[in-house]
Design brief:
Domain Protein kinase: 342-621
Domain Gnk2-homologous: 22-128, 134-248
Radius of gyration: 31 Å
CATH architecture of the largest domain: Orthogonal Bundle
Oligomer: single chain
CATH topology of the largest domain: Transferase(Phosphotransferase), domain 1
Number of domains: 5
CATH superfamily of the largest domain: Transferase(Phosphotransferase) domain 1
CATH class of the largest domain: Mainly Alpha
Shape: globular
Signal peptide: 1-21
Structural class: alpha+beta
GO molecular function: ATP binding; protein serine/threonine kinase activity
Largest sheet: 7 strands, mixed
Pfam family, one: PK_Tyr_Ser-Thr
């Protein structure tokens, strides 16, 4: 213990509980002190400033991060029991601010702040995880007696707390989550009063330690201080207990009815005198029929009420959406005039769903007008999604929606005008790359991360972008990034952490493996896309660029090349030559390291955006070691074996384990797409040593499809004396005429080198 005290190891555990407390108390320990404005103090401020974002990211899971090197290292942890995310974030911020104010230089402290939800923030210079701590303890007491009938109160309360302690201390199937040791219950005291109680242990404890902590806490109320009083809030470092005569929390209190004695047996009840009255069988049948009838009526009532509520919510949502956007609706003539009748000279670019024009409104405001193509496949759903969703988002790193136009077949979105076009305009142009120095690129990386964090955690909604790429990052006059193009965004529910789709859309080079192969998307799929973006910003190359990975002519993309250079100890070779080496080499190397963590094959191995921002803002945070990225290329002979397997006709059940494959499935229902087969046949280019880059695509088209369009780009790169010729198959702009958009499901696109 003395050795530990010599090392200023600062530990945080943050636990958010679903309880509404009306008090706020900070406990500062005098066991040790740190120097104000020193490293320890700086680390404390840093971790506390990011706790509100981190707590809302974990969805109830225990969180752990380390900051700093000993003797100024910090460990942090947090969990959420199911309280509202906004309330929880506010609670964490209040607790953090209070600790900094009340404990200016103490190395140990904790706080239980009140508000719509109760949270627990603690830090210490010794590790306290997985250890039972009963002191220091504190309590707040409601001094009035619970009821005039204290005997009845005692019986009901004792039955309630015994069952609650057993329930709370029983480990559930959610380890390292606040739900693991948590219960909130209610018991009826009389027709006018209820008993409400909440018990919680920190999720790092064992079941036995949790039981000990809760029993000691309840015992203090029952025997030592305040038996039969109306309420108590009792706090220990390892557990929390509260009882009141009113609903003090937004938490769902489960009803616990006191166990009642069995009814007395009437010794004459089985005697049927002269066979008069109803038999026991008849009485039982009537009782059962009555109960069943009542249950059926209750079920029907619940179903009707749920449908009525759902309908009302839908009406309210529609009304809200209309009210949000009605004031910013433009007529088509106004937009036509602003863009000079959509003249070619006003055209800024073309995206996946239509063209973008520069316009000037009658008041002189410059705007960007996104005119959706009639043949684009983006219907009313996608248009409504983007118009209504973006109108609710307000962040400096998100492009701002000014209004929309919906007349006849015209679907138009009006955005703020961002003068410096998109990131890819500078990043991938050899003549313009030099205009982005490292400081600007680093600021762009940080700005994008803040914008994604807002979408994932800090807005009122949890939003997955699903189409993060360089062309969807706009740059304002000061080269600050703004995320755009929200047509593919998906809103997650309160407790939703993952979504699934059969319509895989977006740009393949930025797709995470689980999304490209299985249609699964989450915050972590956006993290994967962001990791690819970081590597592109650093290198000035597209992820689809082809690199020679070893002497056997094995080739790979940008992610593969970044991994190879990082593993070989030469990550700075990835840096764009247009920047040149500078005094920020450590920062560049760290960004590459973070990017490789973002593109891990397993989504669970990728960091949350809140953690990424923490990594970017502090060089003292220890980074995990990245594993081999997905689809990492291996030797040519292995691919010859894969090639010999054949997969031209049956692709729905293909499962190839070789990491060098890029598996992207695009499938509908009937027939084949000869246009795409012809495209694939063109992407065969021999290199100097006769290595063949072969891309094979099989697509089955939908019966309603009338036509397919595609874009295809072949890029040649020179690397010293070794010629590398790559073929890119960018089908981001596949468009389909007809009533439905083409639905994408994984088939196999093999890239064999």
């Amino acid at each position: 213990m003395k050795l530990m005290s010599l090392c200023s190891i600062l530990c945080f555990v943050l636990i958010s509980f679903g309880a509404n407390a009306s008090f706020s108390e900070e406990t500062c320990s005098n066991n040790g002190f740190f120097t104000p404005n020193g490293t320890y103090d700086a680390n404390r401020h840093l971790i506390l400033s990011y706790l509100p974002s981190n707590v809302t990211a974990q969805k109830g899971l225990f969180y752990n991060v380390s900051i700093g090197q000993e003797p100024n290292r910090i460990y942090a942890g947090m969990c959420i029991p199911g309280s509202d995310m906004a309330d929880c974030s506010t609670c964490i911020k209040s607790a953090s601010d209070a600790l900094i104010q009340s404990c200016p230089n103490q190395k140990e402290a904790y706080s239980w702040p009140g508000g719509p939800t109760l949270c627990y923030v603690r830090y210490s210079n010794i590790s306290f995880l997985r250890s039972l701590e009963l002191i220091p303890a504190s309590s707040n007491l409601n001094g009035a007696n619970a009821t005039s009938d204290l005997t009845q109160f005692t019986e009901i309360w004792e039955d309630l707390y015994v069952r609650m302690v057993d329930a709370a201390s029983t480990s559930k199937s959610t380890p390292s989550s606040s739900d693991n040791y948590y219960t909130a219950n209610i018991a009826v005291l009389n027709p006018y009063q209820n008993i409400y109680a909440l018990l919680q242990c920190t999720p790092d404890l064992s079941s036995g330690d949790c039981r000990t902590c809760l029993r000691e806490s309840v015992s203090y109320y029952n025997r030592q201080c305040c038996n039969k009083r109306q309420g108590i809030r009792f706090r220990r470092p390892s557990c929390y207990f509260r009882m009141e005569m009113y609903a003090f929390s937004k938490a769902s209190f489960v009803s616990f009815t006191a166990a009642s004695p069995p009814p007395a047996v009437d010794q004459t009840s089985n005697i049927n005198t002269d066979n008069k009255g109803l038999s026991a069988g008849v009485i039982m049948a009537i009782t059962v029929a009555t109960v069943v009838g009542v249950l059926i009526l209750l079920v029907l009532g619940c179903v009707f009420r749920r449908r009525r509520n759902s309908y009302q919510r839908a009406l309210n949502e529609t009304d809200n959406d209309i009210s949000i956007t009605h004031s910013s609706q433009y007529d088509f003539k106004t937009i036509e005039s602003a863009t000079n009748n959509f003249s070619r000279s006003n055209k800024l670019g073309e995206g996946g769903f239509g063209e973008v024009y520069k316009g000037t409104l009658s008041n002189g405001t410059e705007v960007a007008v996104k005119r959706l193509s009639k043949m684009s496949g983006q219907g009313t759903r996608e248009f409504r999604n983007e118009a209504v969703l973006v109108s609710k988002l307000q962040h400096r790193n998100l492009v701002r929606l000014l209004g929309f136009c919906l007349e006849g077949e015209e679907k138009i979105l009006i955005y703020e005008f961002v003068p410096n076009k998109s990131l890819d305009y500078f990043l991938f142009d050899p003549e313009k790359q030099g205009q982005l120095d490292w400081t600007q690129r680093y600021n762009i990386i940080c700005g994008i991360s803040r914008g994604i964090l807002y979408l994932h955690q800090d807005s009122r909604l949890t939003i997955i972008h699903r189409d993060l790429k360089a062309s969807n990052i706009l740059l304002d006059a000061d080269m600050n990034p703004k995320i755009s193009d929200f047509g593919l965004c998906t809103i997650f529910g309160k407790d939703q952490s993952q979504g699934n789709t059969n319509r895989i859309a977006g740009t393949y080079a930025y797709m995470s493996p689980e999304y490209a192969l299985q249609g699964q998307f989450s915050m972590k799929s956006d993290v994967y896309s962001f990791g690819v973006l970081i590597l592109e910003i650093i290198s000035g190359k597209k992820n689809s660029s082809v690199y020679q990975m070893d002497e056997t002519s094995t080739a790979g993309n940008l992610v593969n090349n970044a991994w190879r250079l990082w593993r070989n100890g030469s990550p700075l070779e990835l840096l764009d030559p247009a920047i040149g080496r500078n005094n920020q080499n450590n920062e560049v190397t760290r960004c590459i390291h973070i990017a490789l963590l973002c593109v891990q094959d397993n989504p669970d191995d990728r960091p949350m955006l809140s953690t990424i921002i923490l990594m970017l803002s502090s060089n003292t945070i220890t980074l995990a070691v990245p594993q081999l990225p997905s689809f990492f290329p291996r030797s040519r002979p292995e691919f010859e074996q894969v090639k010999s397997l054949g997969f031209s006709r049956s692709t729905s059940n293909v499962s190839l384990s070789n990491d060098k494959e890029m598996v992207l499935r695009k499938s509908t229902h009937n027939g084949t797409a000869p246009e795409l087969k012809r495209l694939a046949s063109k992407i065969v280019t021999p290199t100097a040593d006769d290595t063949i880059l072969e891309s094979y695509v099989t697509v089955r088209t939908k019966g309603v499809a009338k036509s397919l369009s595609f874009s295809h780009e072949v890029v040649q790169d020179l690397n010293g004396d070794d010629q590398m010729i790559g073929a890119l198959n960018d089908m981001d702009n596949i468009e389909q005429q007809g009533d439905d958009m083409m639905e994408f499901e994984p088939i196999v696109m093999m890239m064999i080198f």
